[in-house]
Amino acid sequence: MDWREDGIILAIRKHGETSVIAELFTESHGRHAGVIRGGVSRKLTPILQPGAQVDATWRARLSEHIGSFTVEPVRSRAAVFSDRFALAGLNAVTALLIFALPEREAHPPLYRRTRDLLDLLGQDDLWPLAYLQWEMALLEETGFGLDLSRCAATGQTENLVYVSPKTGRAVSRDGAGEWADRMLPLVPCLRGEGDASDADVLAALGTTGWFIENKLAASLGNRPPPEARGRFLDAISRRIARG
Amino acid sequence: MSSNNDIDNLIEMMARLPGLGPRSARRAVLTMIRKRGLLLTPLADLMQTVAATARECLSCGNVGTTEICDICRDEKRATGEICVVEDVSDLWAMERAGVFKGRYHVLGGTLSALDGIGPEDLSIPRLISRVADEGITEVILALNATVDGQTTAHYIADQLEGRVALSSLAQGVPVGGELDYLDEGTISAALRARKPV
Questions:
Q1: pLDDT average, residue stretch B108-130
Q2: Is position B139 within any domain?
Q3: ipTM of this complex
Q4: Domain count within chain B
């Protein structure tokens, strides 16, 4: 058994004294693990950093074996190490993918979005909104997508200000009625509208975060969502406080 | 292969050490037995002594034989600088270089989302209290140039911002390094950290 394709390194764990187990996110094979022999060597360590894009070849005698990877660097994203905001974002993306995706299940659209999102790392003015849209895509891919096109109660397409925590659908001010205090805010940038300031994106991430914590995590046996996401939200908050 | 259980057990224990496998452990044990007076007995005595006295320094986390290690007790090293390292082996590497004359703080690991290691699992709170109590003027973050190492460095920087001067080790071309063999991340870090000549 073998295959070869580009992948994004999500995590590296030491395996014995000289090898590592790498988790890659690939377009056709999804989140996939494999052993990299000599992975702790000086030659490979700089390549094997989370977020890096590699050309990976996976081999195993049987498909159910963990198998082994050989990798060649395609794109390093180590340049963001010195940028605390970008690094927090990178950590949130890799941690959420590990958290949310089952192993060996392909998610081609999410892979392409992730690759494009990571290519934007370091562009701090664009990144929070791009990250929000990626998180919505993650919810969509895992079966908890938000439908914000029209009001779930009245069918209205205007004056949509809430998201129903029950269905993930938009609700208008009129449609919410006495349930308004139980609704989540529908920040315009969730629908791709408005100027998407950091404060708007942070509020919108509160809404997507609710679905990650209460729907996605619940479907995964109530595991707590990764702390890396919370640290990225803290980084946005600090940026807002600094002005 | 020996038929003695004790020797087999010793070989098995030695084989668990980093850098040794069953074959090299067997060779080491055989050499020690052959040089009993020169190697085995002094080694056994020293191991017993170290087993009884080795402990973590209460201040910095270095490994020594006293509650406060030699570095922390050395008055000449009270320069107001603390060098933060991930592990005791990193502290020893810095000491081998012999260029840093301040004190250290060993974190005991790095933040890791994958392994569920948060700030409370490291000695970050102790570092913050040391900065307040010991008149520290600069904290040097000497953490590994990896995602986890730099995430931890940024976290500590956020916690200490405004209280003390913060710096980190430079990243770039290693001594003897050839540009052709460097990854693009290292080259980009080196270019950003360029200096006038």
A1: 89
A2: yes
A3: 0.83
A4: 2
